[in-house]
Amino acid sequence: MNLIALIAALVYALVFNFFPAPLANWRTLFVIGVLPALLVVFIRSNVPESPVWEQQQQRHRAAGISPWQSIWQAISSRPFLFIYVIILMTAFNCLSHGTQDNYPTFLQAQLKIGVTGTTIITAIANVGAIIGGTLFGYYSQRWGRRRAIIVACCLGIIMIPLWSGWLKLPNISLLYTLPIGAFLLQFMVQGAWGVVPVHLNELSPNDVRGTFPGFAYQLGNLFAAQIIFAQALLAANMGQNKIPNYTAALGIFSLGAFVAVMILTALGREARGIEFIKTDNDVEFSTSEQPA
Length: 292
What we know:
The chain is about 75% helix and about 0% strand. The protein has helices at about 1-20, 25-35, 40-45, 50-65, 65-75, 80-100, 105-110, 115-145, 145-165, 175-195, 195-205, 210-225, 225-240, 245-265. By secondary structure, the protein is mainly alpha-helical. It is globular and about 70 Å long. α9 (about 145-165) packs antiparallel against α10 (about 175-195) and α9 (about 145-165) packs antiparallel against α14 (about 245-265). It has two domains: about 1-45, no CATH class; about 80-280, Up-down Bundle (Growth Hormone, Chain: A).
């Protein structure tokens, strides 16, 4: 995801710096953004299904159970797990979208940074995100999923003042401090996110592991979608002279999202090291606790 965001930042700079004026607009970016969807054809044709999914499909066909029936059975038999994961994913999506989506707007609308500067800072932030997600995801195997997420969030909170422009170092321009803050904060944000794919799959019921994580994630994404509008509204209300105060809005929302992710993660279970190929009742939310 962050690799795509990094590429998008570079495409943004290309379009607005080198395309003629009639084409330098959001419509051109939208058309270019559709092109990667063509990769679906390659993936669908060449990437095999996982052995776990194939095993589940064989069992469902043998039992005469449709995919929707299996999903409903999994949800109705584990309602607290389902609700917990949706709320957790809502908090995570508030964290990622709340620290990424309005950041270029903050750079341009409040700080009046141009296309090139916005591209450079955004690209640096996404490089940090890629590195952070990779490292925290890797070390979560040693530290435990919940511990890795909580550590990333704690460190991320420390980075908020530098990332949001609230911390201004004497005799040093924000053009130098913001890229550092953006790199470090996204390192921690996506460090926490780097644990999510495996953690979410480990918490998921074995019989719908191919569907449950994506379903819960997208519902969380849906519920978190309003955070961008809320941030923009708060920034406008806190601003002066028609200049929005994204420094305060981004800082408040990111702090809240970090804290929410930490609390929800701590309240959840650690399922590191479970065996995915088991019988349906082997993987339950109430019995998957393992030492972190």
